[in-house]
């Protein structure tokens, strides 16, 4: 107790002198900005909630909004009444899942002479090898890596040949380099002569497994409604129960699909293409300028450009496609960096183009700029971290600055409840979801600023690691569990620093504060500490 009094006596005079003229006014300004952003986010969530309630009450769905009639056989034209469909599967080193995706695509129920399966395998490019070890070890690594990738290429090609022997029209395509990553692969795939025969293109990432009736349920929207460019299906997660982290992801993504995509489809005929589990009208894709690799969200880029040409999109929420969530913390961090950095960078590149566009209404422009981009892709990330992990804890140290209870408690609670409607089965996990989302907001905020400022990692593309059945196989064996990385390699300094800051603020509030924020601050600091030492997600056993 005596040491504490001495410490306060040493620091107190300096803190008391600097707080009123400098720190307090600056912190008040930050609080005001954060409260304004919180209100933006709250009213955006409230608006979407009201729209969803309206859609449910009046049973509005794509089938009674747009014309949908099944394609009927024609005795004279036989199968020529069916449009020609291209199915693209871009992949890169997808050893664990390539058989699942290729098998599901080849199992699509569609006349065999009216469908082409195109496997775009980027796993064979030797120019992307990274030498990270000393020369000798690096050389051995390079040789083994190339042999491994050649073996992987052979495996994928053999899988394609196996399906071709069964009468499936499947094409195995490779290219000389990975320029443009996924966008580059899709763009290159569209250049082949046989694609000219196709009317529509369905796209599935390597871990997606569409049901056999996928095309029967999506193509009629396109054939019966010439103004529709895209039909998007919902994602269904096969490994949502793998760990607590995948349950948290399921909650966030379910809200995205059941609310954000549904609202965009029902109100403005626009939403961001999810990059997979969707069918494009090839004419619309070409009119919009095709695939571009200027950002890490080539799917959203294409969707915005097509929308500015006047095309409409349809989201079919009752059509679900199985896929896999990233179950390791490292993979999820990389994915969230890409998903946060890309939209911010795209917003910077397209905001002027959206404002100058003559083909869409003023209301749609406002929706694109304010709701879709600014609030959901920028404000939502920034306010979560800056307000709840930086500014609010700082007010504990500056008693001259206070946050109104409606901003500190009521608004975030209501936003959280509105987010929870997407996954009722996980409602009891809502508290853990809040802590986890605040941890991830650190990376999303960082990525958002990188995208806006076009800093170093703005175009970084790391393919999300997929485990497929590998984890089950390894768990079934009796090999001991071992972390894939040494403990030192799993430390994340940013999370540890934020955790230490929150813990310090919590201790200060416990001893000297009056708002009792310390309960939240301690819990949130522990969440950052857990993430900081890498104990989130699945620990994959060594091979």
Unreliable stretches (pLDDT < 50, length at least 5) are 125-140, 473-483
CATH fold name of the domain at 62-327 = Spore Coat Polysaccharide Biosynthesis Protein SpsA, Chain A
What share of the residues lie within helices?
55-70%
- The shape, in one word, is globular
* SSE topology string: HHEHEHEHEHEHEHHEHHHHHHH
Radius of gyration: 26 Å
- Main pleated-sheet profile: 7 strands, mixed
Q: Structural class from helices and strands?
A: alpha/beta
Q: Superfamily at the CATH H level of the domain at 62-327? A: Spore Coat Polysaccharide Biosynthesis Protein SpsA, Chain A
What distance separates the N and C termini? Answer: 53 Å
Record keyword descriptors for this entry.
543 residues, alpha/beta, Spore Coat Polysaccharide Biosynthesis Protein SpsA, Chain A, seven-stranded mixed beta sheet, 16 helices, 7 strands, 56% helix, 9% strand, globular
Explain what you see:
It comes from Cucurbita maxima (Pumpkin). It is an enzyme of class 2 (transferase). Belongs to the glycosyltransferase 2 family. Plant cellulose synthase-like A subfamily. The chain crosses the membrane at residues 366-394, 414-436, 517-540. The chain is of the alpha/beta class and 543 residues long. It is built from 16 helices and 7 strands. The chain has helices at 2-57, 62-65, 98-106, 135-164, 181-189, 214-224, 244-267, 282-287, 298-308, 329-356, 362-397, 405-420, 430-453, 470-476, 493-512, 518-532; strands at residues 85-91, 115-121, 170-173, 200-203, 228-237, 278-281, 312-323. Helix 4 (135-164) links the parallel strand 2 and strand 3. Helix 10 (329-356) crosses helix 13 and helix 11 packs across helix 15 (493-512).
């Amino acid at each position: 107790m005596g040491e504490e009094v001495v410490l306060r006596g040493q620091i107190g005079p300096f803190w008391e002198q600097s707080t009123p003229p400098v720190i307090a006014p600056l912190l008040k300004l930050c609080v005001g900005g954060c409260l304004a952003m919180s209100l933006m986010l709250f009213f955006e969530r409230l608006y979407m909630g009201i729209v969803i309630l309206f859609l449910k009450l009046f049973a509005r769905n794509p089938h009674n909004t747009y014309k949908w009639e099944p394609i009927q056989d024609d005795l004279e034209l036989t199968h020529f009444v069916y449009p020609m469909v291209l199915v693209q599967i871009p992949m890169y080193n997808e050893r664990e899942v390539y058989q699942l995706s290729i098998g599901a695509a080849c199992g699509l129920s569609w006349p065999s002479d009216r469908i082409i399966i195109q496997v775009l395998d980027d796993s064979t490019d030797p120019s992307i090898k990274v030498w990270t070890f000393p020369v000798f070890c690096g050389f051995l690594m390079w040789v083994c890596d190339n042999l491994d990738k050649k073996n992987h290429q052979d495996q994928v090609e053999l899988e394609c040949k196996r399906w071709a022997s069964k009468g499936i029209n499947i094409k195995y395509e490779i290219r000389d380099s990975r320029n443009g990553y996924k966008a580059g692969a899709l763009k290159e795939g569209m250049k082949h002569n046989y694609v000219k025969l196709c009317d529509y293109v369905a796209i599935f990432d390597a871990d997606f497994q569409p049901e056999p009736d996928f095309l029967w349920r999506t193509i009629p929207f396109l054939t019966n409604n010439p103004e529709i460019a895209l039909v998007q299906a919902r994602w269904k997660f096969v490994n949502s129960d793998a760990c607590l982290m995948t349950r948290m992801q399921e909650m966030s993504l379910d809200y995205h699909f059941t609310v954000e995509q549904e609202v965009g489809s029902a109100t403005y005929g626009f939403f961001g293409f999810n990059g997979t589990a969707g069918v494009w009208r090839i004419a619309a894709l070409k009119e919009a300028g095709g695939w571009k690799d200027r950002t890490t969200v080539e799917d959203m880029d294409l969707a915005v450009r097509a929308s500015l040409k006047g095309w409409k999109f349809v989201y079919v929420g009752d059509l679900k496609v199985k896929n896999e969530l990233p179950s390791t913390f490292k993979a999820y961090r990389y994915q969230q960096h890409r998903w946060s950095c890309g939209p911010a960078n795209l917003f910077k590149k397209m905001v002027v183009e959206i404002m100058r566009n003559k083909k869409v209404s003023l209301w749609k422009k406002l929706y694109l700029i304010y709701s879709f981009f600014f609030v959901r892709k920028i404000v939502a990330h920034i306010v979560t971290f800056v307000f709840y992990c930086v500014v609010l804890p700082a007010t504990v140290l500056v008693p001259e600055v206070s946050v109104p209870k409606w901003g500190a408690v009521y608004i975030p609670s209501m936003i959280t409840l509105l987010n929870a409607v997407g996954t009722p089965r996980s409602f009891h996990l809502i508290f853990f979801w809040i802590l986890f989302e605040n941890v991830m907001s650190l990376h999303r905020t960082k990525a958002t600023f990188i995208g806006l400022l076009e800093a170093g990692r703005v175009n970084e593309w790391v393919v999300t690691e997929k485990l497929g059945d590998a984890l089950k196989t390894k768990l079934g064996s009796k090999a001991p569990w071992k972390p894939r990385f040494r403990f030192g390699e799993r430390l994340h300094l940013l999370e540890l620093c934020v955790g230490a800051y929150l813990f310090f603020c919590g201790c200060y509030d416990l001893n000297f504060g009056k708002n009792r924020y310390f309960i939240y601050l301690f819990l949130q600091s522990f969440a950052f500490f857990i993430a900081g030492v890498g104990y989130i997600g699945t620990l994959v056993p060594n091979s």
